Amino acid sequence: MRRTSCLILTILCLTANGLYGIDDHGREIRPASWREDATIHDVFFINPTHGWAVGDQGLILKTVDGGERWTECQNAGLDLDDHRSFEQKLARMRPISRAHELYPLTCSLKCVHFINEKQGWIAGNYYTPYLQRSHSVLLKTEDGGNTWRTLPINFLPQINRLHFQSQLGGWALGRKGSLYNSGAITTSRGGRCWSVQTIDPPHHLIDGDLVPSGFVVVDNEGRIGKIVGKHFQPATVVAPSPGRLRSVRMHNAKIGWAAGTCGTVLITRDGGCSWSYPEPWTSNAGLRQFDFSTVSISQERVWIAGNPGTFVVSLDAATGDDLQFHPTSVSMPISKIHFPDDQHGWAVGANGLVLATDDQGSSWNVQRIAADQVGILVFSQHTRDLPFALLSCFANEKGILSASVILGEHDDLSLDIAAAASVRV
Questions:
Q1: Per-residue model confidence as pLDDT tens digits over 389-406
Q2: What are phi and psi of 318, to 5 degrees?
Q3: Helix (H) or strand (E) holding 120
Q4: N or C: which end of the chain has fewer CB within 10 A?
Q5: DSSP alpha helices (H): ranges in 191-243?
């Protein structure tokens, strides 16, 4: 058997304390460049001009001109670094709270929602060392996102979906925790205090939407169902070989849409009790190359996107007809898509990506993206040893810039093939 001499460098982790420095409180000073290519997890526009986006490394972006300029917002929060000993942590079993000490947050921010141009909320999560537990971080702004403050919440589990209908009333969906035995919680105090909605059996929830009878939700295993009262009712899925669902939105009390892996797109016409493929989906096998992760519904159309982000798909939201594919010119995964109306829409994703359309999805423009940096570097003795399948997967399908270095002899034909496989398209 021929031995393959190939070295692949995918991630370079530098953790020495002296690399970026330590502040007076013992916290690592992270370079601002980390936020430039941080993955953006959510985007929300209250109207076609005012919008916000959040992502990893505590990234908070704001625009007041429809995305022509995106600016970073200041965020401040509790000191989330716990400097107690392991024995002290086990004795108290809670994160330290120092309300008088404010620091910029560097955790992952997952979702954002505004009720007007001034008042909004952001939910994120961080992990407690040693205990392997996730805890939520909830931020609130009163000035349109210029400044943010952390709300004093304890033991709130990870939040994946956040929605407020007024200054005080809101709901959230996420993981169940030690004090919250279900993934559905509600607030009547603007996020300062939360009540758990008991579910039998308990579920971790990754997405959902509100209906008059309760919630239509997707759990962490990709199953869809309804929360009615205190019971989780699995929905009937009338579809051959559906993938794992990841997102769901309701158009009205009866009609809703869900999407997931393997090109799965489902529609309900009975308020979430049963789901099936829309008619255009059954005759389009090419859709199975997509892993959809986000659904947004405007007045008349439903918009769906995921990995790869080469196309945004749309259908008539009420009937499921008029299937359209909208090219984006990028291949990086899209994590969230949002349309405040039928004309304007935004999509966000990996590498700090922000896409926008103002012509009903016909064309998409890149408003923000990090500078190109090599994500995968391959060293090989010969061109014949290059992992072309891996390079094609990450460079072409996932949009990660890849490069190869040939250490030994090579021929021109092999170099041409290697160059084609190493360029992000």
A1: 877 777 766 667 777 788
A2: -90, -35
A3: strand 120-128
A4: N
A5: none
Please name the amino acid found at residue 319: T
SS3 content of the chain, % helix, strand, coil (to 5): 15, 40, 45
Cβ within 8 Å of residue 420, ≥6 positions away: none
Query: What mean pLDDT do residues 127-152 have?
Result: 83
- β-strand 77-78 against 102-103: which pairing, if any? antiparallel
Cα–Cα distance for residue pair 105/30, rounded to 1 Å: 11
Q: Spell out the residues 6+ positions from residue 347 whose beta carbon is closer than 8 angstroms to its own.
A: 43, 294, 305, 309, 312, 328, 334, 336, 337, 338, 353, 354, 355, 356, 364
Separation of alpha carbons 273 and 270, rounded Å: 6
Taken in order 268, 258, 117, 345, the sign of the CA dihedral is negative
| Interatomic CA distance for residues 364 and 360, integer angstroms | 10
| Residue labelled with tokens 């805890």 | 135
Rounded CA separation 332/372 (Å): 12
Q: What is the mean pLDDT of the chain?
A: 81
- Residue 49 — pLDDT band, cuts 50, 70, 90? very high
Q: Which residues pair with 361 in a beta bridge?
A: none
Q: Going by C-beta distance under 8 Å and a sequence separation of 6 or more, which residues neighbour residue 247?
A: 207, 218, 258, 259, 260, 292, 293, 294, 295
Q: In the structure encoding, which two tokens stand for residue 117, read together? A: 């141009």
Tokens for 379?
A: 């060293």
Q: Is 35 helix (H, G, I), strand (E, B) or coil?
A: helix
How far is Cα 47 from Cα 205, in angstroms, rounded to an integer? Answer: 28
Query: Cβ(136)–Cβ(156) under 8 Å?
Result: yes
Q: Which tokens sit at 45?
A: 């526009």
Contact present, 304 and 316 (Cβ < 8 Å): no
Which residue bears the tokens 């460049």? 33
DSSP 329: S
